[in-house]
Amino acid sequence: MIEGNWDDFIPVRLPVEWEYRGDPGLHPDIDGVTGKEVVLLIQKRFTRFEKILAKLMKAPKVVRRTMHPTQSMLWELMNGERNFSEICNIMKSVYHEEIAPVEERIKAYLEVFVRLNVATVLKPKEEE
Questions:
Q1: Exposed site from 20, 52, 57, 76, fewest CB < 10 Å?
Q2: CA-CA distance, 126 to 39, in Å (whole number)?
Q3: Residue 105 domain boundaries
Q4: pLDDT of 42-72, one tens digit each?
């Protein structure tokens, strides 16, 4: 995905519908971070034939993708204001050894989010 030093890269959620589920779990004392499970609501894209079948079968038009608690925490932290290094430090302080090695896990989660087209990773601006 991205080569080089990730520390200053900024993970950002793309405009996608999502909601919370359940009770708060582990979470840091940061505004906007609840510790609840996040559920992504992903619109299905059908071909013409699939639309006909979906209508006949009464298939849902939205896929509900529930995330693991650590993925949910990452999702909440990806508000465009924190860089990769800051997010890793927060995740390490909350989950300790459970998420070790933190940098590799966060990179893997981010790659999944990018592949699902629900997030992107912005490169830092070059200092002039």
A1: 57
A2: 35
A3: 10-122
A4: 988 889 998 899 899 999 989 999 999 999 9
Q: What is the 3 state secondary structure string of 32-55? A: CCCCCEEEEEEECCCCHHHHHHHH
- Burial grade of 74 (CB within 10 A; 0-12, 13-18, 19 or more): buried
SS3 21: strand
User: Is residue 128 in some structural domain?
Assistant: no
- Say how many domains are in the chain: 1
Q: Report yes or no: 10 and 80 within 8 Å, Cβ to Cβ.
A: yes
111, part of any domain: yes
Which secondary structure element, helix H or strand E, spans residue 84, and what is its range? Answer: helix 84-95
**Three-point CA angle 55, 57, 60, nearest 5°:** 70
* Prediction pTM value: 0.85
Q: Which positions ≥6 away from 106 have C-beta within 8 Å?
A: 74, 84, 87, 88, 91
